[in-house]
Amino acid sequence: MNAEQHDLGVSQVAAAIAEPARTRMLCALMDGHARTSTELASIADVSASTASSHLAKLKELALVRLYVQGRHRYYSLADKRVAQALEALMVIGQNAAPTFTARAPDRLQFARTCYDHMAGTLAVRMHDRMLEAGWLVDVEGKGYRLSDSGEALFQGLGIDVQALAGQRRRFACPCLDWSMRRPHLGGALGAALLQVAIKRKWVIQDLDSRALGLTASGGKEMAARLGVDVEMDVGPAGAIASRLAPTVELR
């Protein structure tokens, strides 16, 4: 890229961010949660069609990323560099990011199944911990692979990593959590981890819903093996099985 093209690229990105509605959309995504175009339209106080146009422009300039999950379409910041740029502009402009809280039923938010893997606050925390520890390695556009230490971790849990890698389905990938609006672990590896959690009675599966209850021993095991501090998430909706409130599945 020559200097003229570089200058043009900078000016295009700056102009895209400078539009007030787009600024509000981008700032609302800085917490790492994904939003729908409807939510972002409400935040930016624009019509749905105008929001779609703004999001298309932001996507074209690689400022946001689109996730399509079933019939739902979610947007998030393209990467941490976008968030860093916004933070720098806020310091210069002495402005603060608007806040937005996504709503989800508390009783299903902590832990539940998502197809054949685990979802909810607990699953998102496990996913984030695996990335932070370097057990999962992000392969841009291709999901995740395991590091040597990650492979040792899963094999230590009794998971045949090589057999999973030979399956026709994706080995490991981020799956956007509808309540947390952040990824949890999907793919063959995510499914195997859920089976281990159920077999070892880390979690207890409801007979008539997708809700999962975390057992006391499960909390201790996850803290010891994965470094996930699940006690931080115990709340009125319940986490430890003996204190888990009744769950109702959304249908």
UniProtKB/TrEMBL annotation:
Coiled coil: none annotated. It comes from the Bacteria. SMART domains: HTH_ARSR. Residues 2-97 form the HTH arsR-type domain. NCBIfam families: HTH_metalloreg. PANTHER family: TRANSCRIPTIONAL REGULATOR-RELATED, TRANSCRIPTIONAL REGULATORY PROTEIN. This is Transcriptional regulator. The lineage of its organism: Bacteria, Pseudomonadati, Pseudomonadota, Gammaproteobacteria, Pseudomonadales.
